[in-house]
Amino acid sequence: ILYDFIEYFEKDGPSYLQREKYHDIINTIFRNMSTLERDAIVFQYTDWEHANDGYLNQKMIGDVVGDYFFICPTNLFAQIAAERGMKVYYYFFTHRTSTSLWGEWMGVMHGDEIEYVFGHPLNMSLQYNSRERELSLKMMQVFARFA
Questions:
Q1: Listed residue (53, 66, 42) closest to 14, CA to CA
Q2: Locate the Carboxylesterase type B domain: which residues (predicted)?
């Protein structure tokens, strides 16, 4: 969303997204859906007690995009594979890297776990903290056992 709607978001700090812009983004991303479907998305992803809270509107757009493009398709794929008798393993990476170049408001980004799987935190020159080095070691062990 940051790339597609650069005029609405700040990279390094939270963006206070006006309600009108929230609707603009929903209507653009889901332009191939019916008005009823888009209204259902808005209904589901609105904190109605704080509908005009720009910070929450920005967060809800992130949730919509994450759910639609990542979480839901992954869950569907896992469900179909399990129904066909395949073993399914799933993880959800929630650690926000201390050296992230992205604003804290963005949380954990898609693909952030890759640097841990490949041991980047073990490179002392990259200035990861000790907790991140431990996490990287654990993740490398888990992925190696899995493979």
A1: 53
A2: 25-147
pLDDT at 1: 67
Question: Which amino acid appears at position 106 of this protein?
Answer: M
Torsion of CA 90, 108, 74, 31, to 10 degrees: 170
20-59 residues labelled b (16+ CB within 10 A) or e (exposed): ebbeebbeebbeeeeeeebeebbeebeeeeeeeebebbbb
pTM for the complete prediction? 0.79
Q: Torsion over CA of 125, 127, 132 and 137, rounded to 10 degrees? A: 0
Cβ neighbours for 9, distance < 8 A, ≥ 6 positions apart: 1, 2, 15, 17, 58
Q: What is residue 123's predicted lDDT score, i.e. its pLDDT?
A: 97
